[in-house]
Amino acid sequence: MTGPVLEHLGEVRLELGAARDAPREGHWRQGKAGDGIVWMALDRPDSGTNTISKAVLLELSEQLDQLEQNPPEALVLRSAKPKGFAAGADIDEFTGMDPEEIEEMLREGHRILDRLGDLPCPTIAVVHGEALGGGFELALACDWRIAVEGAAFGFPEVQLGLHPGLGGTYRLTGLIDQVEAMQLMLTGKKAHTKKAARLGIADVVTEERHVAAAARACADGEVERRGGGLRGGLKSGALKFSRTRKLAARQMRSKTEKEAPQAHYPAPHALIDLWEEHGDDRSAMQEAELQSFARLVATETCQNLVRVFRLRRALKKRAEGEDGIAHVHVVGAGEMGAEIGAWAAMRGKTETLSDLDLDALGKAVKTAEGVCGGAHLGAAETRDALDRMMPDPNGYGVRRADLVIEAVPEKADLKTKIYKGICKDMKPDAILATNTSSLLLARLSEAVEDKARFAGLHFFNPVSKMQLVEVVRTKATSDSTTQRLAAFCGVIDKLPAPVRDYPGFLVNRMLTPYLLEAMVLLDEGVQKEVVDRAALRFGMPMGPVTLADWVGLDICLDVADGLKDELEKPVPEVPDWMRDMVEEGHTGKKAGRGFYDWSDGRPDPGEGDAGSEDLTDRLILPMLDACMECLRLNVAEDEDEVDGAMIFATGFAPFRGGPMHYARARGHDEVRDRLQELSESYGPRFVPDEGWSRDG
Ligand code: NAD
């Protein structure tokens, strides 16, 4: 093979023409190809993913010393990791630093990327997989960007309470349409290959085997810039005037305020400010970006969102190991089963799906197409995923499956009847998992032959959007079963939360008082919009009335009735009119009508009265109390798991760092006393859990 070729064959190998003996230590490997182009591959030694750490930048700086002295024909930067280009800055490096230190560190980083941008030769970034945050900024500092099919670019910093800090704010707005650039930074969304090319982020889109030729073409200036009208068009020209930018900024601000209120999420608002003020002055924007970033790192929101990032990492860690699961059989191809099947097939599992209803199996294939489309799979990958998913009306797949997931309607008799039928056909080491959301596993397991291989695998709806899966164990479930199920979650890119069999498990136990208290408030005559706004004001992603509609009032009723009989603590009574609504078919989103009219999409409670703080406490504190109960009874292992589960299953106000973190910030004594007060005013359902006193 000639020329520089990156081969992803097991261990990644960089073949660099003459420089086969390129140093293996450090983060960068460099070699010169026969045609005079220097290739540098980023290859963080101790990880499968590249991050843009201080060490990466300092080593780049050393390489630049040589390149400035002796400029090559062109310089190509790429990643030696099969996974992708680079996943952003190393967030752990910011821990414990004060804003001045952060500013100084960033300043050094800016100097290095500026030097890269100022090299007298063409600089080319080749991006496969994802170039995020600092990785995207590194690519933006180059003259050209070649995207390998499937690549994506993005700035997820807002999810950490930040905005880009290594030059992204002015480099991206300087490169493409400014409003599009701001949208990408404000939403944290990724621009996948096609969009990246349309916007002008990627100059070339090609396949891996043509990368060397594409780099040569960029080096020779033979590539026409992409993004035409979106680059330096009329609109971008107009935005150079501060009055036009002010107008655009005002619109951005009001839209952003709806999605991410400034009081809770200062970063996107700070980004709008700095663009509005300095959008026409690159060096002023650079200085403002540095200072603003350093200020944001110190905010409570940023610290809590970094906590959320770490909680995700900790849950992922629980998913390590082998699952020993190649073939999954799903029984029941309804709303949940179809999506679970599609998702697992998309992630490489062989899948069979059985259902009594042939129409459901037909719809499941359509669902799978939608799931693959939503994940931006190409035509070939979608076809492969669909090939792996086989409708199996007679359930023959049970005999070959390593994991059987049952997702039939929430009726204990039906489920146990199915278990009795399939257990004898299952392989001796296969696992049987139920997706039940409210039935106790101990009872269901009575129908199962080998209870050690029976557990819950509780996915949330919609499966493709919700990251969490509760892995529920009974007293009889073996460690190997729970470990394999957690590893299975990891393989299919979900976050496992191991929990004990308990009414509602962890997440529904916590959500039920939130939903039912809302029903009590409606019963008291409070308007549904006011109830929803009280929760939104706290930072919940959806008010409880909207959420009840979203989940389905019939399902809420099932869960509430199940919990009422099982829990020691009183739960709010379900009002009769809610049962009437279900009987009349007004079950919420799926029926087009519940509390709200859903015919035009998700309802918006609008702005206005959000009730008293009392009202918010009545909704939020019982959730915290349920968390404490679950911790006291070892339903979940620790506070971090509870916080992670609530954030990744329900979107619990991420900027507050999770319910238990919020309880710590507010003070356990204060939470307990407030619950006590509420119990005196509104009834025994608010009596604080004994764990608050113990855990001061
Ligand atoms: P669903 O009614 O949409 O689908 C159930 C499917 O099972 C139907 O297609 C039905 O034809 C099929 N079925 C019925 N009897 C069968 C049998 N004997 N053999 C094979 N298939 C059979 O239900 P769903 O909403 O997907 O719920 C399934 C399970 O998932 C329930 O236990 C529910 O509690 C749980 N769950 C639901 C949600 C949700 O939001 N829908 C969320 C989490 C968990």
Q: How would you sum up this structure, described in words?
A:
- The chain is of the alpha/beta class and 696 residues long.
- It has three domains: 2-298, 2-enoyl-CoA Hydratase, Chain A, domain 1 (Alpha-Beta Complex); 320-493, NAD(P)-binding Rossmann-like Domain (Rossmann fold, 3-Layer(aba) Sandwich), CATH 3.40.50; 507-695, Orthogonal Bundle (N-(1-d-carboxylethyl)-l-norvaline Dehydrogenase, domain 2).
- Helix content is 48%, strand content 13%.
- It is built from 29 helices and 20 strands.
- The strands form four sheets. The chain has an eight-stranded mixed β-sheet, sandwiched between helices. Strands 3-4-5-7-9-12 form a six-stranded mixed β-sheet, sandwiched between helices. A four-stranded mixed β-sheet has the order 6-8-10-11.
- Strand 4, helix 1 (54-69) and strand 5 form a beta-alpha-beta unit.
- The longest helix is centred in the N-terminal third of the chain and has 20 residues, at 99-118.
- It starts with a strand and ends with a helix.
- The structure holds nicotinamide-adenine-dinucleotide.
- Residues 331-337, 354-357, 360, 407-410, 414, 418, 435-437, 459-461, 551, 555 line the site of nicotinamide-adenine-dinucleotide.
